[in-house]
């Protein structure tokens, strides 16, 4: 799923913004529900919690997308490491 989102052009920053918007929307939905509905504070709390639960999911997806953006898939043909692209010899720690 994360690779598909990445291929669709969705970036980790988009998910981080969605998480922050979810927090703001949770506060807004709580206030609107509290002030306009006659169902009381319990219903407002439920709305705020329902929308607020989206934020961790968006942040987790943002982290997964960030990992996808920064880690290269070496199984794809034509992909080379930084060392290979710069013609740098890998260091050996044996027999210094």
UniProtKB/TrEMBL annotation:
<feature type="transmembrane region" description="Helical">
    <location>
        <begin position="12"/>
        <end position="32"/>
    </location>
</feature>
<feature type="region of interest" description="Disordered">
    <location>
        <begin position="75"/>
        <end position="96"/>
    </location>
</feature>
<keyword id="KW-0472">Membrane</keyword>
<keyword id="KW-1133">Transmembrane helix</keyword>
<keyword id="KW-0812">Transmembrane</keyword>
<protein>
    <submittedName>
        <fullName>Uncharacterized protein</fullName>
    </submittedName>
</protein>
<feature type="transmembrane region" description="Helical">
    <location>
        <begin position="47"/>
        <end position="65"/>
    </location>
</feature>
